[in-house]
Every structure is written in C-alpha cells, then in structure tokens.
Amino acid sequence: MSAARFGRRGRGHWSSLGGPETDADNIAECCYCACSMLRQVAPRLVSFEEQVAAVREALAALHEAQEDWSAAAQTLAGIDLDSGAS
C-alpha cells in the first residue's frame, strides 16, 4: 500500500462523508497509519515502549480481522517482553 494513495484523499474521507469506502479500506488505512507510527518511533523505542506495545496489539487485531494470521503474529513478536523486568 503506497503513501500516495492516502495523500490524495486527505482529511474527511470517511464513508459517512460520501466516499465509497468499505470496512476493508478503513482497516487497511488504520494498518498503514499504525505501521507509519511504528517506523517513526523506532529510533526512540525506549521512550515509548508502552505506547508501541499498545499500537502493536491494536495492529495485530486489525490483521486478525483481515485473517492475516502471519502478519498478526509478526506484529506481536515485535513487542519487547523483557522491557519491564527489574
């Protein structure tokens, strides 16, 4: 999925505003946004560990909704389980 696809649509593109969007389109856009956010915070992961884990869990749920089990598993595998250990 390319960034250009989302750049053309801009804000206010939800189906309630007249667009022919489907749930699959909305899920795909949410996945794209979550992946973009994860790429942006990657260099500062230590500062945002809890938030990144929450986004990864939500992203995995979106992959599960699309029945993309492999992507869901890979997303969850990226959560650092040792970060909270003392």
Description of the structure:
It is a single chain. The protein has 86 residues and is mostly helical. The chain has a domain at 21-77. Helices cover 60% and strands 0% of the residues. The chain has helices spanning 3-9, 23-41, 49-65, 69-77. It is globular. The chain starts with a helix and ends in a 9-residue tail after the last helix.
Task: Summarize the model shown.
The protein has 86 residues and is mainly α.
**Poorly predicted residue ranges:** 1-20
Coarse shape:
globular
Q: Bin the helical content.
A: 55-70%
Return the average pLDDT rounded to an integer: 76
Q: Can you summarize the main beta sheet?
A: none
Rg value: 15 Å
What's the helix count?
A: 4
C-alpha termini separation: 40 Å
Beta-strand portion reads under 5%
Specify the structural class.
mainly alpha
Strand segment tally: 0
Element pattern in H and E: HHHH
Features:
mainly alpha; 0% strand; 86 residues; disordered N terminus; globular
Topology:
Blueprint: H1 3-9, H2 23-41, H3 49-65, H4 69-77
Helix pairs in contact: 2-3, 3-4
